[in-house]
Amino acid sequence: MTKRGDMAEDVRTAPRKGAAAPPARPEATTAGDRLLFVAAFFLPPRLTPDRVRYHRWYRKLDTYRFICWFLSLPLLFYGVFVVSPFLQAFFYSLTDWTGLSANYNFVGFDNYVRLWGDAQFWSALWNSVLLLIVVPVVTLALGLFFAFMLNAGGRHKKNEAISGVRGSQFYKIVYFFPQVLSVAIIAVIWARIFSPRSGILNASLERVGLGALTRDDWLGGPWALACVMAVLSWSFVGFYVVLFSAAMGSIPKEIYEAALLDGASRPATFFRITFPLSWDAIRTGWIYMGIQALDAFALVNIMIPDHGMDVLPTFLYKQAFVRGQAGYATAVGVVLFLVTLVFAVAMMRLGRRDRIEF
To answer: Does 77 map to a domain?
Structure first.
């Protein structure tokens, strides 16, 4: 019995006729094996040496090789067209390049020292920071209010926990209309509205008996920043009405029904249900609106006269293309990049909350 069992064991373990036995997996790796692994990372599987292909590490290498080769072309384009310009900008910020020739001299951090003592730079930076703080708050607050009213501000209908106001779809189109217009058209229209001689703002104030509130120079005096804030908020609030309406529409109606049965008012429903469940869209919108507020170049450059205010993009433009100081202008661009980066990272960190599943 034992002999017959031993023979059966030999038959099961013996390799089949014509079949090649798999090569033994090496347990230890030498310097030569490491070089083979590096080479195998750039080779297709059929050209990979057997000594590497049957190693226990090869499966992990094959996985990462596929991921890296799949991402190599997009990363190459990103590095050439996105990362490389940033690095070049930082390099030119350390030179006295005029932007009008290929000649430049390395000056180190002199441009940044000059920025530190430039009053016009600090004024432009302060205006940009104010836009960064005020415009997102006002725009998102108005977008949330209008979106909530359009989705849950109507009278309660039969068999519906919440309902929007009548004609909500039409209002969404009206609110979104400024997004269809280009920034240049918006700037020209509002420049005519704020015109002290032929603008409808002063004429309307005088017609309703508020002539004391009229101004001779809305866009060139201390009111210029407030006018830019108002135009920015007006032009983007419709986008956020649509964005927040989509976020609120994804909230299950059962949650509102439960709140209604508990006797929750509309303000309580908004702050305890709608706002927390729409937080991801709000945080994304906040970052996007902050970047738009920092990039107010076209609006300020077209709408505001030369004696008016400056923001960082317009200050950069004047230094590079009016005064021929491209090296100094790229230093301003580096500062603008750092401000944008700090704002985005701060919002991602401070706005992080536990995700609510529903």
So the answer is: yes
Place of tokens 């450059």: 301
Residue position matching structure tokens 């000649």: 103
- Who contacts 53 (Cβ-Cβ below 8 Å, separation ≥6)? 40, 45
CA distance 342 to 135: 17
Among candidate residues 63, 92, 121, the one where a domain is terminated = 92
Q: How far apart are CA 279 and CA 285, in angstroms?
A: 10
Dihedral (CA of 318, 324, 326, 327) sign: negative
Is the pLDDT score of 129 beyond 80? yes
pTM score, whole prediction: 0.77
Residue with the two structure tokens 């600090």: 122
Q: Which residue has the tokens 């993009």?
A: 313
Q: What is the pLDDT of residues 206-242, one digit of tens each?
A: 889 888 888 888 888 889 999 999 999 999 999 999 9
Q: Which of 299, 296, 309 is nearest to 191 (CA)?
A: 299
Count of domains forming the chain = 2
